[in-house]
Design a protein that fits this description.
Largest sheet: 11 strands, mixed
Structural class: mainly beta
Strand content: over 45%
Distance between the termini: 35 Å
Oligomer: single chain
Low-confidence stretches: none
Helix content: under 10%
Number of strands: 20
Number of helices: 0
CATH architecture: 3 Solenoid
């Protein structure tokens, strides 16, 4: 199709205290991708044509610095003509941790999936398996003030044993479909 593949806008690994703000990113993969990162701020950026703002794919043999994303703030961004808005994907059979990830006041336009959280990513397959066997914990995820347009509001397939403390509030995305959810914390009604 003539477009470059795997062109992440920003790809963070083993970083602490990185701030990325005020950029315009036109690409075909993640606008922001984090395999490991602590205390990251991603704010007031414009992302167009890719896979949205992503944590992952995340997972390793043990829980350590290379398998952890914590203290993330993603705020005031505009995500346009993308496959995903906000995404977290963890690898089947592996360990790690996502904690204290906050997503306030982001705007979507013409996005396929507004909120994507999967515990079933296969590196070998390069996609989702439908069987959420990842042991990466996903806790303390807050999405608030998400607005705009999407085809599906939710695409959530998680291992219910490793998710907790999620809060979704003030979501005003106009979506053609609510999408689907399985394994999410009981505090999240999809």
């Amino acid at each position: 199709d003539g477009t470059a593949k795997n062109t992440d806008g920003f790809d963070l690994s083993r970083n602490d205290g990185v701030t990325i703000t005020g950029n315009k990113i036109y690409n075909q993969d993640d606008c922001l991708a984090m395999q490991s990162s602590t205390n990251t701020v991603f704010s007031n950026n414009y992302c167009c044509g890719g896979h949205g703002v992503s944590i992952g794919s995340l997972g390793g043999d043990t829980v350590n610095q290379s398998d952890t994303v914590s203290g993330l703030m993603v705020s005031g961004n505009t995500i346009v003509n993308s496959v995903n808005g906000i995404r977290i994907k963890t690898i089947i059979g592996l360990k790690g941790q996502v904690s204290n990830a906050k997503y306030p006041n982001n705007k979507l336009s013409n996005v396929k999936n507004a909120i994507v959280i999967h515990s079933d990513y296969s590196e070998a397959k390069g996609g989702y398996t439908g069987s959420p066997t990842s042991d990466v914990t996903i806790q303390g995820v807050t999405i608030s003030g998400l607005s705009g347009t999407a085809t599906n509001l939710y695409d959530i397939v998680t291992n219910s044993n490793v998710v907790s403390g999620w809060t979704f509030s003030g979501i005003t995305v106009s979506a053609s479909s609510k999408g689907s959810c399985s394994g999410q914390p009981s505090s999240i009604a999809c």
